[in-house]
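During the second half of the funding period, the structural biology subgroup turned its attention to how the target accommodates small molecules. The most pressing case was NAP, which had performed well in the primary screen but for which no bound structure existed. We therefore specified the complex as follows and requested a full 3D prediction, including the ligand pose.
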Amino acid sequence: MDDSMINILVTGAKGQLGSEMRAVDHKLQRYYFTDSAELDITDYSSLTSFVEKNKIDVIVNCAAYTNVDKAQDEPEQADAINHKAVKAMAQICAQHSIFLIQISTDYVFDGTVNTPYKETDETRPLGIYGQTKRDGEVAVEQSGIDYLIIRTSWLYSRFGHNFVKTIGRLSSEKEQLKVVFDQVGTPTNAADLARFIVYIIDNDIYRDKKGLYHFSNEGVCSWYDFAWEIVSQSQTQCKVEPCHSGEYPTKVTRPHYSVLDKTKLKSDFNYRIPYWKDSLHDCIKKINNKH
Ligand SMILES: NC(=O)c1ccc[n+]([C@@H]2O[C@H](COP(=O)([O-])OP(=O)(O)OC[C@H]3O[C@@H](n4cnc5c(N)ncnc54)[C@H](OP(=O)(O)O)[C@@H]3O)[C@@H](O)[C@H]2O)c1
């Protein structure tokens, strides 16, 4: 065993981001990937035993309750995973000098602005999911540990269920799709975020850059534009029509504008982030090649 290697625990490893983390080439450090069946993050004693046994130095918490609408009906479960477990995880990190990389969301904002959100902007979540994720952020911020909180938006991946796969499938089954054009944000290929996280860990450039950061792909679009581009790149014949959110009522109102400003991250880490259409192209290519 190479003693210069550090030990990294990635939770939620069968989710979109966790799966992409696993797929990144990482030879420089020792990674442990766990999902809910192996390590339930709400189980304090299992988490403590795991970090002690494996001498964990960094936790990348990709585990979360991510069903935005269902969270309205299951607020306690969403709070247990997105807030209480994160608070307890931060306590364990404090006891064992572990650096925590916590993933959060653009849904901490209410979307009533029309310029990209900075890390310093006020949060005002519109639903239980966003509120519990914000409560998780606050718990980390108040814990006194060394941490990075990375907010991201509109995550998709070749792994799991997501908008890219749904639109890809529907566009081959239907002649026309209607998609909302009054919610604007930035899609993020989870592979790009995973690469960034592994890059900062492997190059040891995270420890002196603590705090809150925004990460999404570059550019701005509506869900309609996103769907249009998926259909175009998938080369199906389906027509995509714009519609208002009111035509498809959901349990939770989504922010009308949730573009994240990434200036701080790009400058502090001297990092170049790919444009959303290029990243979408990479993902569709991988889906078509069956990974
Ligand atoms: N998806 C998006 O559009 C989006 C947008 C912005 C931010 N984010 C944030 O990005 C992060 C990653 O999201 P994602 O899209 O990769 O999520 P995801 O695909 O839904 O994966 C979440 C993973 O967490 C696991 N998990 C749930 N409860 C757990 C528990 N108690 N213990 C251990 N693991 C548990 C799930 O396992 P099971 O399936 O077995 O429950 C699943 O594998 C999350 O923090 C999310 O809030 C996501």
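Two results from this model are relevant to the next phase. The chain has a mean pLDDT of 95. The CA atoms of residues 52 and 96 lie 8 Å apart.
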